[in-house]
Amino acid sequence: MYLSKSDYLMGVDCIKALWLKKNHKELIPQYDETTLTTFDIGNQVQNLARNFYPKGLMIETESWDIEKRAKLTKELSKKNNVIFEATAKLSNGCFCLIDILIKKGATWDIIEIKSASSVKDYYIDDLAFQKYVFENAGYPIKHCKVLHLNKDYVRHGALNIKQLFIEEDVTEEVLLKKSEVELNIKTFLTYQTMSDTPKIPFHSSCSECPFYSYCGRDVPEYSIFDLLSAAKADEFYNNTHSCNIEDLPLSYCTTDKQLIDLDCFLNNKIHVEKNKIKEWLAGLEYPLYYLDYETVMSAIPMYDNTSPYSQIPFQFSLHIQKAPHGELEHIEFLHQEQSDPRRNLAETLVKSCGKKGSVVVYNQQFEKTRNKELAALFPDLSKDILAINERIVDQLIPFRNRYLYSPKQKSSASIKYVLPAFSNLSYKGMNIANGGDAMNKYLAFLEGKQTDEESQQMFTDLFKYCGQDTYAMVLLMDELYKWAEK
Ligand code: SF4
């Protein structure tokens, strides 16, 4: 019987998840591309952070051989003050690796490296477990710290490692967890070996769990978890053990939107507020410029004037339409070099967007923020870029505000749900089918991890994907006109 750090954190989240992990390994899903990218980012950040401690030594042996690692750590701790991936294991089965273990006199400090840009609550649980294991293995711990990325750092020239990271002392928060950790460990070690699955009801935050498909196997494709707020959905499910919308009393719907969604679902009808749609359409000024960006994000700033996790636009698609239902002109930009795409993109954008006419986007916050960042970066283009922002019209509004709603949207106004509700256009089967795919593949290209052939294929896929995003808005505009006149 053993309990690793990730087991412990899983148990803190949900005891049933820990039990399933230990007793039904076959239910654990394979890592997807996004998870693998996250691991990759974590490794890059760890490698950089270790530069803080040039005298640190790594425990160099297979990660699975915990006994050997723990023995090597003991030996190394007698001669070196900084150890990377130090390992300890207790007789009760608890074990963990510590990112950086530092000797200060007769005590030790733990440093946990994180690729996030702030301290999250679960880091405290993470460190509390590490402290428990190492103290019981004979390493008295004085300080627990998190070394995370500094979101305010802006790269100029070579990376400044000292400014890129922030070290936060969280010892006090960790100490408050002492008795909780001890109790949790006893519980988790006992629970693992129980023959019956722990009785934990399905709940709204299950969607984050790797066992979601298993625990949620009876949850319909559209359920109370989509329609209600998290608290109300959990309350209803706990009271009734049903997640079917058909069973939902009206009293659980606390907003007009929820009442509309419920009515449309139960009566299989489309909700239309013609006057509101007409009013929104009347605000459009032709020609329309349907605009969509793809962006790439890197934990470690790649270019000058970027920070950790800056969103760097590298592609846009622009469909131009001179009159309602009119013909389309299509302009697209994709930076196909391994360099900072922003200047080329900003110049092409300004040239392509004209001087008048509404710029239609879906969820304006994203495009507007990117434009403001580009304007701040290129003062000579600033006036023109900010003028584009003044012309932006958000197509999300008529769908989010339920001027037009189909039960096929499943209570969502995301274009990925709205589009199939009102058209036959689909992202199914596309090599790049969402913004996350686009970002991960483009990042791999920038980092030189693709062959030329792979990059060429990716460019083709990106043109298709981003082009479809703006064409989708054209189709939705046609639908809005159609329903306004019906
Ligand atoms: S899906 Fe929910 S109930 Fe099931 S293991 Fe995960 S968190 Fe627990």
Name a few traits of the molecule.
486 residues; alpha/beta; Lambda Exonuclease, Chain A; Nucleotidyltransferase, domain 5; six-stranded mixed beta sheet; five-stranded mixed beta sheet; 13 strands; globular; binds iron/sulfur cluster
Q: Which helices and strands, and how do they pair?
A:
Blueprint: H1 5-13, H2 15-23, H3 33-49, E1 57-58, H4 66-77, E2 82-89, E3 95-104, E4 107-114, H5 121-136, E5 141-149, H6 161-164, E6 165-169, H7 171-175, H8 178-192, H9 212-215, H10 224-227, H11 230-240, H12 256-267, E7 271-272, H13 274-282, E8 288-297, E9 311-321, E10 328-334, H14 342-352, E11 359-361, H15 364-377, H16 379-390, E12 392-394, H17 396-400, E13 404-405, H18 415-422, H19 435-446, H20 452-485
Parallel strand pairs: 1-2, 4-5, 8-11, 11-12
Antiparallel strand pairs: 2-3, 3-4, 5-6, 7-13, 8-9, 9-10
Helix pairs in contact: 1-2, 1-5, 13-20, 14-16, 15-16, 18-20, 19-20
Bound molecules: iron/sulfur cluster.
Iron/sulfur cluster is lined by residues 14, 16-17, 20, 200, 202, 206, 209, 211-212, 215.
